[in-house]
Amino acid sequence: MSEGLRQMSPKDGYVVNTKAHIGSTEFKVILKLYQPLMGVNAYGVYSLLATKVAQTPDLLARRMHKELLDILSLGLRDFYEARIRLEALGLLKTFVQKDELGQVFIYELQAPLSAEAFFKDDLLSMLLADSLGQTQYDELKQEFVKPDLTYANAKEITKSLLDVFTVKKDALLKNSQVKATPKPTKNLVDSVEVDLDVEYLKELLARSFVPATEISRSLETLKSISLLYGLDELELVKLLEQALNVKDDKVDLELVKKLATQQFDRQFKEITPKEAKVTEPVDPAVSAELTQNDLALIAVSKQYLPLEFIEELKRQKHSFVTNLERYTVKNLVEKQVLPNAVINVLLHYYLIAQNNTMLEDKVANRFTKAAAKLAEKKIQTPEEAMLYMREANQKAREKQKQKQYYGRKQQVVQKETLPDWAKTKENKAVSKPAKEDKQALNAEIDELLAQLEQSE
After folding, report:
1. Within the chain, how many helices (H) and strands (E) appear?
2. Which of 216, 281, 290, 230 is nearest to 260 (CA)?
3. What percentage of the chain carries pLDDT values higher than 70?
4. Cβ-contact 31, 143 below 8 angstroms
5. End-to-end alpha carbon distance in the chain
6. pLDDT for residue 420
7. Tens digit of pLDDT for each residue in 445-456?
């Protein structure tokens, strides 16, 4: 459980405030452009908070979070997850304080970017294209961003304010002195640390035919691509070269984004488990506990980025990656608490070994909880992760058997089909479980992980 969630209670108060105008136009942008990124729960939370904005905000006139949870039919964890997604997308600022009445959260709603600004933000636009696919993305862009009308030969004859209206000079000077300077809009990628060596990128560009002036114009786009797809400086320069228009020596940034997405799709489709070479784990003691199938999976887990790996797993299941699955995996990767190969082992366990259709809701909670436990145990290799999850699975099975025995259940309990690494050595022959048995087993694993957290 995250620290932020631990500090919340349904009995905590809340007050909603906003300094922005959020009308039908803004809600259309949120629904069509932001909602695919943040999910329906977050959209529901934002919409409900918008109805709770007080005309005259007062911390004494607070309401309890239980009211919000009841209206939304959400648990506290789901509400918290929705809230932090809104915060991450710049739609909500959250403040907290304690006073004589208890703890109170102040939610300050933020207006979304305009549709034009959204599509100009490299990170947001690429996330949307990645979530919806290029076809739907292009349709939305065509709906919201109207093409410019070119009239290079026309002469502007627009009148200025003082050409039409008479304003006293002293009043004009007085107003100009108190006028606030608007803050420039900050791109979403500016708030994320990106591992990109700009100096090395400039050196590579100096050896290419891309003008050095294009680096400053395309830097934000390159940062977003590096963050999302893990491309290095050399690969980024190649993208710039492919997207350079030789007529005006300008890089087509939209083409750069499309090429990056196509390259990512092509790379994860070309890499298959059959092409991976089996490598022995470093620790001989760990090696003795693993089968050849285990080693093959380990080799594959080391070759994929987590976003690539979940795409491959869902493709094998003849399915697709949902927006919430993509967010869950991306969020865990960005925390940098586990190596990619360990995250991939967890993905394989919950999607393939446990045969879950999607990594959402309760399954996503189990996945995140297991990841937190592995991080707490300082597990840094896929081999150790396999053995740890195998042990947790076995303990849960033993506990389930004890409950079934003492509960005097007469029917034979069918066991769940798992890959080699998720089984115990003594029990390799298994059959497909009944739905209720699988749910019981998952509940046991949840309970076991919770007990481990409490005991430490």
Report:
1. 23, 6
2. 230
3. 74
4. no
5. 14
6. 60
7. 555 555 554 544
